[in-house]
């Protein structure tokens, strides 16, 4: 088995204690140094405060890890040349012995292989604007259509075409529920402007849906729990609209494509909002990680 599950995570899974998977792309490619390491440690702490075990996921020297120690987290945060790995990159990274941070798609796959059912992130990837020209749709969506995992997120990144992404999730058969909201969250914004069909109001209700997924035994698809950040912590919507328009323009002008698009846009927003988008991003991730801890606890008790 190439997968390395840390002893703490393995013990928790064996004893049916709560575990929350965390992605590493946000650490290596989504946040500036040295803030990224502080955040990585803080997120693990939030999971622990909820009585769950954190399992940050990454590939180190060709070995996929579920659960990192402090030294390993430091490598992901500070080493140069840490690649960005979607799920399709995993065999290539393993065979060539490289180190990389995992996106939502690779994290969800490794978490599920390691026996972890609950996963927290900031915002999912999805269908990019200009999709008709670039065909850029994050591999996150296809993987979530094939993986039985519960993902707590603040919706999909607002740099995307949100209604097209919601449509793709419907087509792919991925369950989506708002957490205590009838509106689909907008990542940096509490409300993307689009409704959700289902609303769940407690960790126990989420665990109930997870149980129903297993009982129905349909396709191995995910459950997306869309958790909005509180309105008082969101990015100013006017500022968001203005800077995002500039960011998309700059991206096109510089001919940025493929895997580089998402990190470029997120970084552009941080730099042109005086860090306000970073605060909103972190607030969203923190809230998602906390909720994921509670859901994992409810699931372990179910
Ligand atoms: N959410 C964040 N920051 C990030 C990402 C999500 O707050 O950096 C990452 C996730 O790992 C997600 C990836 O899976 O961006 C999507 O990239 P792409 O569009 O290239 O699939
Ligand atoms: Mn992409």
Automatic annotation (TrEMBL):
One of the protein's GO biological processes: nucleobase catabolic process
GO cellular component, one term: cytoplasm
Keyword Endoplasmic reticulum: no
Enzyme class: lyase
Cofactor (UniProt): Mn(2+)
One Gene Ontology MF term: hydrolase activity, acting on glycosyl bonds
Enzyme Commission designation: 4.2.1.70
Keyword check for Lyase: yes
Residues holding Mn(2+): 136
Catalytic-site annotation from UniProt: 23, 157
Residues given in the record as substrate binding sites: 84, 104, 138-140
Superkingdom assignment: Bacteria
Keywords: Glycosidase, Hydrolase, Lyase, Manganese, Metal-binding
Subunit and partners: Homotrimer.
Similarity annotation: Belongs to the pseudouridine-5'-phosphate glycosidase family.
Functional note: Catalyzes the reversible cleavage of pseudouridine 5'-phosphate (PsiMP) to ribose 5-phosphate and uracil. Functions biologically in the cleavage direction, as part of a pseudouridine degradation pathway.
PANTHER family: CARBOHYDRATE KINASE PFKB DOMAIN-CONTAINING PROTEIN (PTHR42909:SF1), ZGC:136858 (PTHR42909)
Protein name: Pseudouridine-5'-phosphate glycosidase
Organism: Streptomyces muensis
Organism taxonomic ancestry: Bacteria, Bacillati, Actinomycetota, Actinomycetes, Kitasatosporales
Primary gene name: psuG
């Amino acid at each position: 088995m190439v997968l390395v599950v840390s002893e703490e995570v393995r013990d928790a899974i064996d004893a049916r204690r709560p575990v929350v998977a965390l992605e590493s792309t946000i650490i290596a490619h989504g946040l500036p140094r040295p803030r990224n390491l502080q955040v990585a440690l803080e997120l693990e702490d939030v999971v622990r405060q909820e009585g769950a075990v954190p399992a940050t996921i990454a590939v180190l020297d060709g070995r996929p890890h579920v659960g990192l120690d402090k030294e390993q987290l430091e490598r992901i945060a500070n080493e140069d040349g840490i690649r960005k790995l979607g799920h399709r990159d995993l065999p290539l990274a393993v065979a060539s012995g490289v180190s990389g941070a995992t996106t939502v798609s690779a994290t969800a796959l490794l978490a599920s292989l390691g026996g972890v059912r609950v996963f927290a992130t900031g915002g999912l990837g999805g269908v990019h604007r200009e999709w008709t020209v670039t065909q850029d749709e994050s591999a996150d969506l296809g993987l979530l259509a094939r993986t039985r995992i519960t993902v707590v997120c603040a919706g999909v990144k607002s740099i995307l075409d949100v209604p097209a992404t919601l449509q793709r999730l419907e087509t792919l058969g991925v369950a989506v529920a708002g957490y205590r909201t009838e509106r689909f969250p907008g990542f940096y914004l509490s409300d993307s402007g689009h409704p959700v069909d289902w609303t769940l109001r407690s960790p126990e209700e989420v665990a109930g849906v997870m149980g129903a997924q297993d009982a129905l035994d349909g396709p191995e698809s995910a459950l997306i729990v869309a958790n909005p950040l509180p309105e008082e912590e969101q990015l100013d919507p006017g500022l968001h609209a203005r800077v995002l328009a500039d960011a998309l323009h700059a991206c096109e002008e510089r001919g940025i494509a493929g895997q580089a698009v998402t990190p470029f846009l997120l970084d552009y927003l941080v730099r042109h909002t005086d860090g306000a988008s970073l605060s909103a991003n972190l607030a969203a991730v923190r809230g998602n990680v906390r909720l994921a801890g509670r859901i994992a606890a409810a699931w372990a008790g179910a």
